[in-house]
Amino acid sequence: MQNSVRVQHGMAVAPHALASQSALAVLREGGNAVEAMIAAAATIAVVYPHMNSIGGDSFWLMHVPGEAPGAIDACGAAARAASIAWYRERGITESIPFRGGVAANTVAGTISGWGAAYELSRRALYGRIPLSRLLADAIDYAERGIAVTLSQSANTANKRAELVSQPGFSETFLVGGAVPLTGSVFKQPRLAATLRHIAKHGTRDFYKGVLAHSMIEDLQRIGSPLTLDDLQSHRAHLVDPLSLAHSAGTLYNMTPPTQGVVSLLILGILDELNIAAVAPGSADYVHLCVEATKQAFHVRDRYVTDPAYMSVAPQSLLTAQHVQQLASTIDRQRAAPWRKTSTPGDTVWMGVIDGEGRAVSFIQSVYHEFGAGIVLNNSGVNWQNRGCSFSLKNNGLNRLMPGRKPFHTLNPALARLHDGRVMVYGTMGGDGQPQTQSAVFTRVVAYGMDAQSAVSAPRWLLGRMWGSSSESLKLESRFEASMASELAERGHDVEVLQAFDESMGHAGCIVRYPDGVLEGGADPRSDGTVAGF
């Protein structure tokens, strides 16, 4: 049984050990949680290349003791040339392809998020560690190489057939035309040079400088609608996160275009249903969590999109009255119909809390494994395919429009509890993200489990997940043997997976206690670890 890590001076958790260690090194050098997360974000983009990239988007949720939490929206918008008509001219009428240049239709925002976080750290948190130091580990790992994880090797093998023809994929992610073996050395020299350039010239160069010109040349060569003007007009934005009044405290998550409201609604509904009175790990517990998820997804599918186009204020969806109304529709003994509208996706979630109690919950993604599958020739940047979430239907909630932000499954979570604890938690995995968040939060807060036990405990997933195409209710086999049959009797379409199944996502959690002790848990389903001192 893996135990929680407990320290006092600083802690980081990530789905790859090297990212946790990069954050820890910055904390040891006197850096704050924001600086440590920039280092972790850069490292994870190199060492977990199938999960994320500097060619993707990111979102930050930050807490400073005594202040209201804040957030950074580093989501890139659709190209100004990207329209339904643009795709129809190219014979694409039903949906945007997942791969290739036409899938690379949104600006990659994550580097702007690093830049906004860096400026915020220096302005408000007295951060003094230079950007060159924060990116140093990532540059070294890209240049000198990393040991390939089983996750990278397996995902490359699984996606090779559909990606091998995409520009730059084979040269970057295959070795001599073959899938890199677990434990072999994997280098990314072009990416190393790009990160070194950013370290020297700043994050703005990604959007306005030499690097921007180089990337646009490569993107347009392979059929992307993005232009230099799209990059130059991009900005990361500081925003106020969504909040939910919970019996245990105040919970926070990211604003639209993410599904942060979904994660908060699930926990609000479960609180209204008094989930703490339900036996942990029971069929009742899983059933109520799944039914709360269905209700929250119905709200998402009706309202959530780019906030500039929403018909309601996102925070209004989290009122006590609305939460109570949703909870009242749940049958404790019978499963409601499932419309099967779920979405897969690959992502990384990471958390950092420093010795002063400053906390960051962070998530970074290229959407599907390897994003659009393209790697830009000069920069070595793997570009996201987040814009595939746009609809080509004129009446679609998330219909494609120039300059519009795509819908995101990404949502980093943070909680400030009445008893003085602060908690950052999250996971990768499309529609699995809010479901796993509900598992980790309720196990820590409602049932008093330690962070590691909450993350390690058997999980469930309704619908599609990263690496999975079925829409069933999936259970890890470590649940009681009777669980599957009990849930099936209530009307759930149940599928049993492996004991620790990677398709359940890579979760993590850090809890800071009022006395300053930090407790963390990393997912045994990932290559991650908790690092602290």
Mean pLDDT: 95
Radius of gyration: 21 Å
Low-confidence stretches: none
Shape: globular
In the CATH hierarchy, the architecture of the largest domain is 4-Layer Sandwich
Q: Within the largest sheet, what's the order of strands?
A: 1-18-17-13-12-9-8
Give the CATH topology of the largest domain. Glutamine Phosphoribosylpyrophosphate, subunit 1, domain 1
Please report the total strand number as a whole number.
Answer: 19
Output the keywords.
533 residues; alpha+beta; Glutamine Phosphoribosylpyrophosphate, subunit 1, domain 1; 2 domains; 7-stranded antiparallel β-sheet; 19 strands; 34% helix
Explain what the structure shows.
The protein has two domains: 20-43 and 71-238 and 368-389, no CATH class; 239-345 and 409-532, Glutamine Phosphoribosylpyrophosphate, subunit 1, domain 1 (4-Layer Sandwich). 34% of the residues lie in helices and 17% in strands. The protein has 18 helices and 19 strands. The strands form four sheets. Strands 1-18-17-13-12-9-8 form a seven-stranded antiparallel sheet. A seven-stranded antiparallel sheet has the order 7-4-3-11-10-2-19, covered by helices on one side. It is globular, with a radius of gyration of 21 Å. The model has no long low-confidence stretch (mean pLDDT 95).
